[in-house]
């Protein structure tokens, strides 16, 4: 079962990267995320 953890970590990184990319596309680059904004919580607990 050792290999499964590595796959989960890779998939997790890909998922987080995809979410970050999606939000980077929808938000102006200059606008800093507000502290406590919902996306902060979503990313933190993925």
Structure, briefly:
This protein has 46 residues and is mostly helical. Helix content is 72%, strand content 0%. The chain contains two helices and no strands.
What does it look like?
With 46 residues, the protein is an all-alpha fold. The chain has one domain. It contains two helices and no strands. It has helices at 2-26, 38-45. The protein is rod-shaped, with a radius of gyration of 14 Å.
List keywords for this structure.
mainly alpha, single chain, 46 residues, 0% strand, 72% helix
Classify the oligomer: single chain
> What is the helix tally?
2
Largest sheet: none
3D shape: rod-shaped
Task: Extract low-pLDDT stretches.
Answer: none
Total number of distinct structural domains:
1
The count of strands amounts to 0
Quickly give the structural class.
Answer: mainly alpha
- Roughly what percent helix? over 70%
Strand content: under 5%
Instruction: Give the N-to-C terminal Cα separation.
Output: 22 Å
Order of helices and strands: HH
Q: What is the mean predicted local confidence, pLDDT? A: 70
Please state the CA-atom Rg, rounded to the nearest Å: 14 Å
SSE blueprint and pairings:
Elements: H1 2-26, H2 38-45
């Amino acid at each position: 079962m050792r290999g499964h953890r590595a796959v989960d970590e890779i998939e997790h990184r890909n998922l987080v990267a995809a979410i970050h990319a999606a939000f980077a596309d929808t938000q102006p680059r200059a606008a800093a995320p507000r502290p406590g904004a919902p996306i902060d919580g979503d990313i933190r607990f993925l």
